[in-house]
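Structure ticket #2291
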Amino acid sequence: MQMSVQSNDAVLAYLARFDSGSTAEYFAGPPNLCGRYHYGDGPGGFNFARETIAVRQAIARIAANAQDAGEIGYLGSLPTDHHFPGFAEANPCALLPPNVRPRIWLGNASTVACHYDTYDNLACAVAGRRRFTLYPPDAIGDLYVGPIDHTLSGQPISLATGAASDDPQYPRFAAARARAVMVELAPGDALYLPKLWWHQVEALDPVNILVNYWWDGFSAGPDAPHTAMLLAMIAIAERPAAERDAWRAYFDHYVFRPDGHPLAHMPDAQHGVLGPLGQGNYGRIRALVMRLLRGQ
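Resolution: structure written out below.
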C-alpha cells in the first residue's frame, strides 16, 4: 500500500520484483468496452480476447494502458506462490492462518460481472479504489443468472446487473437492487465476503490491484456442495412438479434440517448414518454414494 500511495509505476515495479517469469491468462478489451467484461460477439462468445502471455508483459501493458487507454487489460486470481513467490512473506496477513495463501488481481479500470464464490473471501485493496455491490444468496432468482458451464471466468454471472435499470428483460431485478449493499474500498481497506454472496466489483482507477484470500478446503474437495447440486440437477430438476415438491420436503428434512435433527426423537446410538459424520459415517455414506453412481 505504501508503494501505491507513491505512484502506479511504483506499485507495479514493486510487484514485478517478485515475478517468477510465469505466464497467465490476460483479458484484453477495446477502450469502448468501458471495462465491462461480459458476453458478446467476440472470441468464444465474449466481448474481450483472452491471451496467455508472460505476467511481466501483462503488467507492462496494464501500465501502458493507464497512460493512453489503448486497451483495457486485466489479470485475475493469480496465486502469489506461483506467480510472485516471496510476496506473501513480505506482506503477511495476521488475520488468517499462514496456509491461507493470497491471490492477486490487477488491471485497468474495469467491472467484474456480478458473481458468487464458493469460498469465504477477504478482499484487500492495494492500489486504486474498488466498489463492491453485494446481494444476498437468496437474491439469485432476481439476478437473471447466465449459464453455469459457459462463463467468463469460472462462476456464473448475473445478466441483469450489467443492464439498464429499467430493462424490460429483467423485471424482477428491481427487487434485488432494493436489497443491494454497496461499499467502496480505498488502498488499505479490506472487505470480508461470506461464501455464496453475489458481488459485482468495479475497479475505479487507471491501475488497480487487489489481494484476496479464499478459504474453506471443503468447498474445493470432491464432496463440495456444488457437486451435490449438479447431481441433484440430473436426478430431480426435470421430474414432475409434484415429485419435485415431495423431494424438496425430504431434502429439507434430511439435509437442511429447519426443524432440527431428523432423529432427535431417538437415542444417539441408533442414529446410524444420520449420526455425526466424524464417527465413520462420512466414509460409509461416501462409499454408498460411489457404489450407487457405479450402478452397483
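Closing remark: The chain has a mean pLDDT of 92.
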